[in-house]
Amino acid sequence: MSFPIRAITLDLDDTLWPFAPIGARIDRVLHEWMQVHSPVTAAHFDVDGMRELRERSFVDNPDLHHDLSALRRLTLQQAFELSGGDLALVEPAYEVFYAARNQVECYPDALDALARIAARVPVAALSNGNADLVRIGLDHHFAFQLGSREHGAAKPQASIFHAACARLDVPPAQVLHVGDHVDMDVVGALDAGLRACWINRTEATWPHAHKVPDLEFDTLAGLADWLDAQAAHAA
């Protein structure tokens, strides 16, 4: 399939890097920190207990689903309150979390593919997560990073896609959104009038009969190859 693309918006978690190892590291590092700095909290909430508290906070606070940093701080505050810990430790604990959150290991194909893609068209990071591309060291590949917290609404809301297109100064129909999530990334982008590329690393079956991605690859390198072929064809 061939169509004009002038810019790309790119999801981060589970598109550039897998999130599961990050989440496991966060749980372990934060619990180890609690054991040293707030033993009463570590005793009250083991790794599974803290995860359950976080999940409960997510369910109980739908108004914060666009702001995972606020939800994390809320979970930490609740953990200290319920365990009798010191609330002054909320921000230090958050910084421990955030340092671990930004220790990412990209998929083997991703860094080279990202560099190739960014050499072709402007790329904007568009994420519901709270990764920091500056801390990670990948910001030089991106025109900008737009998160749901900064925007005030999360994918699949059309407004966050449209805000990215406006900053790119490219009409939605000429922007390709790239991501792993069927509904938040692909269907959200299509509903907002963008083109959509599904990065399907798990060989999942597409679940929707009437909405399909414009492109599908099992690696980000597949998209880089497609862009190279488009440029060669146009030359």
UniProtKB/TrEMBL annotation:
The keyword Hydrolase applies. The keyword Flavoprotein does not apply. GO terms for molecular function: hydrolase activity. InterPro entries: HAD-like_sf, HAD-SF_hydro_IA, HAD_sf, S-2-haloacid_dehalogenase. It comes from the Bacteria. SUPFAM superfamilies: HAD-like (SSF56784). It holds the Pfam family Hydrolase. Keywords: Hydrolase. This is HAD family hydrolase. It comes from Stenotrophomonas panacihumi.
